[in-house]
Design brief:
Number of strands of chain B: 2
Radius of gyration of chain B: 18 Å
Oligomer: heterodimer
Number of helices of chain B: 11
Largest sheet of chain B: 2 strands, antiparallel
Distance between the termini of chain A: 52 Å
Structural class of chain A: mainly alpha
Largest sheet of chain A: 2 strands, antiparallel
Strand order of the largest sheet of chain A: 1-2
Largest interface: A-B, 42 and 43 residues
Strand order of the largest sheet of chain B: 1-2
Number of domains of chain B: 1
Strand content of chain A: under 5%
Strand content of chain B: under 5%
């Protein structure tokens, strides 16, 4: 591995500068509003972090991970259990370690075999962890829930989530430039080829899944103070997993910023729907899945890119078709 | 002994649900994550038939199974066949069908929540005592088990003793080779998917005679069915039945000896054992 950030191309410098500019701009939001807009921005920022972290793994591998709620809940619980014992920053580190550990275990058991087993295993993982946590709590503790009292206000949580999103983006950027990122591109295109050129495919996938799991757990740890009272059904809400899948895939996972395109409109739409039509959320989620499969297989960004290349190459293609017809 | 019998009685319905899923996944190559919703829908129809029209759930099967067959055929033809056609390889079909059947799961669940509400429902059917080896069990559970055994036996007869059943098994082994011996693979796959839906619906109707159900419980059953299918080996009937019995017994063991809240943990424990020691399933052959 040569220079860390020394051999960046001009385009990459521009992307980094643009990203830094957007982050700085986003950080000023709490100065303008402390009410509804801040509250929904916290949601957007949370899902931005979750979806980008999810796409780190599921983007290149195409494995639909439904473990998000499990990692998120583990992060929340790390804070809930330790808030009276350890300082908060240390708990965030603990959450990351727990997330990475569980992701490593799940990955080691399933990713060596096949993608389907992985999907099935993650499908019930949040429910499994929830059952285990509930059981341990009723067995060894007196209360069902945990209280988290901190001095954090809504804007502090917003800034922490923004910082996390920035870190996830930067990590994704570094991965794309690294050997691991290259290995994942090869695996995503053709796993047999990847194995033949000497890539340890299982190891690469497990490492990436652990990173993704750690980031998701951190997001859970950051939002824990927002709940004040933590109990298993809210911390391990399976809906989080499904929403993350939908938002990421609607946006598109081919680009690092692709999931964001799905997160912003969908968070706002879900906020509206769950307030006005609470009985219709399942139907909306079902239709969103259909939209992904039948209309936007590569997400909005994938479709836009497709249109863009079509627009740029239309003339040469027409030319080629004309000459082909002449020959025939 | 008590636990053993309770577990086996429970496993009868599990086996039907898993047989439905293994037909859909093994033959039609669609991992139907909305399978549990078919089950719940059958529960509601059986409930409605019994409480509204006083039709015995066992007779109700005669109506529920063909209806589920037709609806599942339609779902396959409209929603899933296009995915099979556009898929370039098995992996792409797998991830496409997972997402599409998630859509199905939520759509059906949402519609049922709208139609029936979120509360738990049950009805009393054959709630009498029935004694086996000195312990008493609900007669409804015993009847449901016997019905499940009869349906599973009929399915076995169809698959292993008829021409069409043999065609189904041929597609399960290798769709390309099945094509070479003049089997209409697309039609057979659609048939298998529809049949799988019908078998699952039977499981649901039988389950409703002794189980309290609600509109959003489908996912848990899909989860259990998936694990049974993997445990038994995809597309393998004997494996699915054996795995269902193992799951039924171990779940009852955990529920009665440790805690009823840990049944999924028991299921996962088995799943992990299978993944570690026999990833191709009990009767499965090693495949790519």
């Amino acid at each position: 591995m040569s220079g860390f950030l020394t051999d960046l191309r001009a385009g990459e410098w521009r992307a980094l500068a643009l990203g830094a500019g957007i982050i700085a701009l986003a950080a000023t939001l709490p100065l303008f509003d402390q009410g509804f807009y801040l509250s929904i921005s916290v949601n957007i920022m949370l899902y931005a972090a979750l979806c980008t972290a999810w796409s780190l793994f599921s983007g290149p591998t195409h494995y639909v991970s439904l473990a998000t709620a499990a990692f998120y809940g583990l992060g929340t619980y790390s804070v809930g259990l330790g808030i009276d014992i350890l300082p908060y920053p240390l708990l965030v580190v603990v959450a990351a370690l727990v997330g990475a550990l569980v992701a490593g275990l799940v990955g080691a058991m399933t990713l060596r075999i096949s993608g389907v087993y992985f999907v099935i295993f993650t499908f019930g993982l949040a429910e499994l962890v929830r059952q285990l946590v509930t059981w341990t709590q009723t067995k060894f503790a007196t209360a069902m829930g945990l209280y988290v009292f901190t001095d954090f206000m809504e804007q502090h949580i917003y800034w922490m989530l923004l910082a996390l999103t920035a870190v996830v983006f930067f990590t994704g950027f570094l991965i794309n430039r690294s050997r691991l990122g290259f290995a994942m591109t090869v695996i995503g295109n053709d796993e047999t080829v990847a194995r033949h050129v000497g890539i340890d495919t299982a190891r690469a996938k497990i490492v990436l899944f652990m990173m993704s799991g750690a980031f998701i757990a951190i997001a859970g740890a950051i939002t824990a103070p927002r709940y004040t009272y933590i109990e298993p059904p809210s911390a391990f809400n399976p809906m989080i997993s499904f929403l993350v899948v939908i938002m990421s895939l609607l946006g598109g996972t081919r680009r690092l910023w692709g999931p964001l395109v799905g997160v912003i409109p969908f968070t706002i739409a879900m906020d509206f729907i769950s307030a006005r039509f609470p009985n219709h959320t399942s139907i909306v989620i079902g239709l969103a899945f259909f939209a992904i499969v039948y209309l936007l297989p590569n997400g909005v960004t994938g479709r836009l890119e497709q249109l863009w290349t079509k627009f740029r190459t239309r003339k040469p293609v027409e030319h080629a078709r004309a000459t082909a017809e002449e020959r025939a | 002994m008590n636990i053993l019998v309770t577990g086996i009685l429970l496993s009868g319905t599990y086996a039907l649900i898993a047989l439905g899923l293994t037909l859909q996944y093994g033959v039609a190559r669609i991992m139907n994550l909305g399978n549990g919703e078919t089950l719940v829908a059958a529960c509601f129809v059986a409930f409605w038939l019994y409480t509204g029209l006083a039709i015995n759930p066992l007779l109700g099967l005669l109506l529920i199974a063909p209806t589920a067959f037709v609806i599942n055929w339609a779902i396959y033809a409209v929603a899933l066949q296009p995915l099979v056609k556009r898929a370039r390889n098995r992996g792409q079909l797998e991830s496409d069908s997972i997402l599409a059947t998630f859509g199905l799961l939520f759509l059906l669940q949402g519609l049922m929540l709208l139609a029936f509400g979120g509360e738990y429902r049950s009805y009393t059917f054959l709630a009498q005592r029935f004694d086996i080896f000195g312990y008493s069990y609900g007669l409804n559970r015993v009847v449901a088990f016997v019905a499940a055994v009869i349906i599973a036996a009929a399915l076995w007869f169809f698959l292993y003793r008829t021409r069409q059943g043999t065609a189904l098994r041929a597609v399960a082994v290798d769709p390309n080779s099945a094509n070479l011996v003049a089997i209409d693979v697309a039609r057979t796959a659609a048939f298998a998917f529809a049949l799988g839906g019908a078998v699952t619906a039977c499981g649901g109707a039988l389950l409703s005679t002794f189980y309290t159900f609600n509109a959003s419980m489908g996912v848990v059953f899909t989860m259990k069915a998936l694990i049974i299918v993997i445990m038994g080996g995809v597309g393998d009937l004997r494996g699915a039945v054996l795995a269902a019995i193992i799951l039924g017994i171990s779940e009852t063991l955990v529920a009665s000896l440790i805690d009823p809240g840990l049944t999924l943990a028991a299921t996962y424990g088995l799943f992990i054992l299978v993944l570690l020691f026999r990833p191709q399933g009990i009767f499965g052959r090693a495949s790519s």
